[in-house]
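User: Second chain of the day. Same drill as before.
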Amino acid sequence: MIILAFDCATVRHSAALWQDGRILARAASERAHGATETLVPMLDRVLREAGLDFSGIDRLAVTTGPGHFTGLRAGLAVARALVLATGLPVVAVTTFEAIAAAIGAEARRGRRVLVAIDSKRAEPYLQMFDTDMAALGGPASQPPDEYAAGLPRGLPILVAGDAGGALVAALRGAGHDATRADAPESPDAATLAALGAVRAPVEGAVRPFYLHPPAAKLPAARTGAERRP
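Assistant: Same format as last time:
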């Protein structure tokens, strides 16, 4: 199975072509903004590097969030356009799952995994997984100290994600055995593709996953009276 995967949920954007456990091609951008400008050229680059076109792809995989509003919208807009143009199935993976899956089984052994994603607010996006990568409760958005205080004492926790530094400090301050994971802080498209190979495609349109409503708002409709000079 050949999968084209891409992620624009956080600061680092990436794309990869994956076939049965082997990476055929990959690309990444460290731009803080500009997913709309960088994603399509990255997809074109990995396809050309692998010598493939969309007729040789079996499915797509994309992150749905949470993350940066503009990047998520750009990534999902491209995914929808490709589905319409090619008829390919698409697998949706949360940003939490994609980051956690990059941590090796040996590193996770005997520990919980806490993924912490920068939300551009005081409350990062958070989700905990057990050592076998099963989610322990739903996602949350809380200040680090508050979240750490609500956990049972003494938990061995491996922390991943681009907001992990603040979480490690808060967890240790609350008496937990917290360690920073030796893994990418943002989703990696190659890991995303591997998840896409073992999950069922979505039915219908792939949709973004938000923990906070988007800060960007459409302007309210103006009445006729308001439009008159």
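Helices lie at 35-50, 69-86, 95-100, 105-108, 144-149, 164-173, 189-197, 224-227.

User: Great, on to the next one.
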